[in-house]
Each structure stands twice: as C-alpha cells, then as structure tokens.
Design a protein that fits this description.
It contains 20 helices and 23 strands. It is α/β, with parallel strands linked by helices and 519 residues long.
Amino acid sequence: MNNVKIKRALVSVYDKTGLVDFVKKLHEFGIEIFSTGGTYRLLLEHGLQIKKVSEITKFPEILDGRVKTLHPHIHGGILAKRSRAHLAELAEHGIDTIDMVVVNLYPFEETVAKPGVALEDALENIDIGGPTMIRAAAKNYPHVAVVVDPAFYQPVLQEMAVNDGGVSADMRYKMALAAFQRTSHYDAAISSYLAGLGESIDLPDTISVQLTKVHNLRYGENPHQRAAFYADVSKGKVGMVAAEQLHGKELSYNNIQDIHGAIGLALEFDQPAVAIIKHANPCGAAWAEDVVTAYARALSTDPTSAFGGIVAMNRHVSREAAEQIVKIFTEVVVAPAFSDEALAILKGKKNIRLIVWPTTEPPTSGYELKAVEGGFLLQEADLLRPQYEEWSVVTKRQPTEAEWHAMKFGWRVVKWVKSNAVIYVNEHKTLGIGAGQMSRVDASRLAVAKAKDAGLDLTGSVVVSDAFFPFRDGVDAAAEAGARAVIEPGGSVRDEEVIAAADEHDMAMVFTGRRHFRH
C-alpha cells in the first residue's frame, strides 16, 4: 500500500481538543472539509471554510441529530475501494470519495459512571453514526485515514508535511487498529451497562472484557514476565484505578496484587483495623479503638514476615501510626488518607510507596477472572459478609462473649488467607496464621509454630478454618495448642466425629454454613 493523498475529509467529533488547529492545518493542504452539528459551528466560529454534511447528502439532519451521516453519499465515499469499478460506480451515483474521517464518540462511559445517571441520558449518549463511520473508514484503511483520537493529530500532520499531503500505509494501519479497539471498548461499555440494569441469576453466556492500559509495569511476578496494569472500562474509576500514589517508586505487579488483598481485608471491618500482607497472605491483622493500637497488634502476630510487607488501614494514617510504621522496612502503606505529619514522616523513607485508597466502603459487586490454558474461569468475587443468623452452635458448650467476638473477627480474616487456611485469634488480633497448606492439620501446625516464634500464647484462643475439618485430628491439634473454641463451615461427612472431639475437649464449636476458599 502506498501513501494516500488526502483531498476530502469528514470531521465530526465530541471531544474537540486540538481540533481547530488540526483543521486549520488540513486547510493549508487544500483539503475540502465537511462537518456536522456542534463541530461545524465551532469551526465556522473560527473562520474556517467548512461545508455541512447535508451538502453531500442533500438531506437535513433529522430526529434531533440522531440521523445525519447515515447516508450512501457518506458511506459510499468512505467504503469505496479506489479501483476502476468502484470509482465508476461512485461516478454513476454522483458520489465523491472521502479520504479522511476524523470522528470521536459521545462520552457514554463518562455518562454512565455518574452516580444516579438516568436511563434516558445513558441512551442519548449511545453514538450511532460515529461508530458506523469509524468502522467503515477502518475497514477501508488501505484507502482511507481514520482518526479517532486527538493524539493522532500531530503525527498525521507530520506525515502529511513530508508526504505532500499524504498519509502512509503504516500510519493508516495503526489508526485503523486504534479505531476498532475504540469501537470494541465502546460497545462493551454499552452492553455491560445494559446488562447491569436487569437482575441476572446466571452468569452470561458470552463475555466481552474490555480493558484499557493504565501503564506498563517493570515486569510481572518474575523479571522474565512482561506485565501491565489495565482498567476495566465498564467500571469507571474505582479501586486501584482511582487510587492515588503520593510517594515512592512505581508499583510492581506483586505490589498491586498485595494491595488488593490488604485493603480488602482492612475494609472488612467497621472498627479501626489494620492488615499486613506479605506474598498475598496476611501475616497479621487486628482491630482496636484506633489504628495505632491496631497496627501494634497486627505487627505482633509475625514481625519477621511483616518486614517488607504491605500495610493497609481503614482509617487515616496519623502521625503516631506513621512513627510506628517507619520502625521497620515497609513496601507500601495504603489508607483512605494521611495526615500532613504522617506524610512528612513516611516520605523520609525513600523506598516506601504511599497510596490513598478512594473509599472506606468495601465493594458490593464484582467478578474475578483467571486465565487457564485455552480459556478463562469467571466467578463472582467473594464479597459475602458474615451471615450471623446462619451460624449455629453445635457443641454442648456455648461460646463465651469473648469467644464470640474472636469468632466474628477471625471469620473476616480467614477469608483473605490462601487455602487451606487455619488461623488462631483472640477477640482483637491474629495470633498464628497457617496459609496455603495441602492439609488442614499442617495449616494448624504452621499457625501454632508461627505463634510460638512470635512469643504469643494460644491458651484460650479461637481456631478458625476456612473450610470444614475433614477429620477430628485438626480439632485435637487445636485443643493441644490451647484453643478453647472453633469456628468452621461444617458440612463434612465426619461432622459428628469432629463435634464429638470438640465436646471431649470442652471446646465450643460454631458452624457458619459457608466456606471461604481462596486459591
């Protein structure tokens, strides 16, 4: 493919950034320009000689502008190959070719991202003519230049300056690719919005996931893996996309994963809470009347593992909290806000990253998507808060008030620990965390060993298991470690045996009826 010399251009944009200067330059190349609606009026106000699209179509804009470019004189001019047969057919119908299409779309994504947006407003911001022209021009990119983003204005002008008003094949290809990516994103945003209007009990039969790159990452989990961070275009600016980095070097792939787990755990609690995450697992979590106390409690679970960890708080970081955090090396601190004094202290550490999380509320909906060879696994995110009304005491002994508090705390924490997960807690904090073990007994042994290493006494503690104990040995091990109560989902064929073990040790046991596997 050779350079395409631009003689006629159709310009119709919502985002008018840089447009006037771009069109002025096109005029200098002697290009005939047609336009519509607000774009036409803007260019005319700046003294540019522009023709209305209706001069091509010989038909006025109708239906409040809903129909203005959907016409054979527009799409014939865009879609025609520059072959003898197509050009002859155009001539027969009095249609001229269009060599450049400069179009961007109504801001549907921004519209539906507004709180409480009305359906009528959303529908009015679904562009019809724009995507149709973009797709037509992109399909015919061997003969037509399609410009869907103001970022292309300068590169296009630079090419035209050195190519006698022409645009190269390579540039036309790049812009066609960008054009189809844009319409694909646009359609996905619309379908996602409409799907969200109904109450669906099933996962969809087909899924269109449209992601926009936020930025490249230095590498993935390992240096030999390329990686980038993408935003879900259907969700707007939420979560990690809306988070603000105040200090420190760029976040890594692993940092972002750990931030997700850390802030997710911290936001489980209404009371001031702190979670410390290392390699996708909590190494300590606690709640208290203030985050300073909560941080000290969380750190005491496993101060060795907390070195180089991610600290998340569900309250603002105070000066006193910052003074404690800087005593050990910390990779990231994420919180809803930082006091000025806390920022001054934390910024004294060159390598610490400080992240402002955009909300203090946990998410209420969402999906998780994981790649496997040949496809993807999709599931609803595990956003279930404790369903206390479903909990049942299955042992002879009822839990004490302190044990109930510990169970309510621990059940929120274990949800964020990799399976198999067994943790020991009291009513304020984690005491020992056994994560990601192949057997539940091994998970319990690991938690006990971690508690011992940290000098924490498990006497009177509560043991929490993310899934049922399949055998009584897990309960026996917990009792031997000093636990006085157990909370687990129940549901094993050996539940009676497990309950009997708890009764033998005079332990209280509660079944939640729900499990929290996390792989």
